[in-house]
């Protein structure tokens, strides 16, 4: 493996990386795969003249035991976006944007799933802390189906700083917490908003809750007390979409 690089795997993740103009060191393709999706990937690789080679499945399995679908790419590390630069660019080009802040998620697959949903729902940027956060590694990228290459992900030293900055630009801060009195359906998401989702085990840090303009929860009517964070995030983001479609 080349210095300052990592592997990503899965056809759609690699396709998204190609469309995003990612710097590839090399793509390894499994010999004998003939699916239509695989053929489409081959065409993209040939069109962009990306270095690649056909290898036996054993070579791919030495790199990862995950479901690679016959394709693994060695890429330069995914770079995080600059926070202030990203926010200013969004605010200058879009009315009433929506940002997503993630407070200390530790599961890379939850991270990837949230990035995928965020991309599908038109979130303008995702903001994460530098410490105590799942890495944007190959598993997160795979789970995101390549959304990590198309959606700005900015890192900050402390989420508090990001919240103060967003509040100074008249972005409402909405925290998702089961301790809230208001339901997510009671909030007006048609205005510029930043939604905070907490970690899988302890939720949002109390200091961030205090800085929030509003706190919301999802109604729970079954015997299970909480949802997986990526599922809860998806429900909330699609409520944003629903309101804005109306």
Number of strands: 11
Order of helices and strands: EHEHEHEHEHEHEHEEEHEH
CATH topology of the largest domain: Alpha/beta knot
**Structural class of the helix and strand makeup?**
alpha/beta
CATH class of the largest domain: Alpha Beta
Description:
With 246 residues, the chain is an alpha/beta fold. The protein folds into two domains: 72 residues, 2-Layer Sandwich (60s Ribosomal Protein L30, Chain: A); 163 residues, Alpha/beta knot. The chain has nine helices and eleven strands. The strands form two sheets. The chain has a seven-stranded parallel sheet. A four-stranded mixed sheet has the order 1-4-2-3. Helix 1 packs parallel to helix 2 and helix 5 packs parallel to helix 9. The model has no long low-confidence stretch (mean pLDDT 91).
Please write out the topology.
Elements: E1 5-9, H1 11-19, E2 24-30, H2 36-47, E3 52-55, H3 57-63, E4 71-76, H4 83-93, E5 98-102, H5 108-120, E6 125-129, H6 138-143, E7 153-156, H7 159-168, E8 172-176, E9 182-183, E10 193-197, H8 206-211, E11 214-217, H9 229-245
Parallel strand pairs: 2-3, 5-6, 5-10, 6-7, 8-10, 8-11, 9-11
Antiparallel strand pairs: 1-4, 2-4
Helix pairs in contact: 1-2, 5-9
């Amino acid at each position: 493996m080349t210095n300052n690089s990592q592997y990503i795997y899965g056809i759609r993740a690699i396709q998204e990386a190609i469309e995003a103009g990612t710097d590839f060191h090399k793509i390894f393709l499994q010999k004998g795969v003939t699916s239509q999706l695989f053929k489409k990937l081959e065409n993209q690789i040939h069109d962009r003249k990306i270095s690649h080679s056909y290898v036996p499945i054993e070579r791919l399995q030495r790199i990862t035991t995950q479901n690679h679908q016959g394709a693994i790419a060695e890429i330069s590390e995914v770079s995080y976006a600059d926070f202030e630069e990203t926010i200013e660019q969004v605010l200058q080009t879009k009315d009433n944007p929506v940002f997503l802040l993630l407070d200390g998620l530790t599961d890379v697959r939850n991270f990837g799933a949230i990035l995928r949903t965020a991309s599908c729902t038109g979130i303008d940027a995702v903001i994460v802390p530098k410490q105590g956060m799942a890495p944007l590694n190959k598993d997160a990228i795979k789970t995101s189906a390549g959304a990590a290459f198309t959606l700005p992900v900015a890192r900050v030293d402390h989420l508090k700083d990001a919240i103060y900055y967003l509040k100074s630009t008249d972005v409402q801060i909405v925290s998702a917490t089961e301790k809230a009195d208001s339901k997510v359906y009671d909030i007006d998401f048609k205005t510029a908003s930043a939604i905070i989702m907490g970690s899988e085990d302890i939720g949002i840090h109390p200091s961030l809750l205090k800085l929030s303009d509003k706190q919301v929860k999802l109604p729970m009517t079954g015997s299970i007390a909480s949802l997986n964070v990526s599922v809860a995030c998806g429900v909330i983001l699609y409520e944003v979409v629903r309101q804005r479609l109306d």
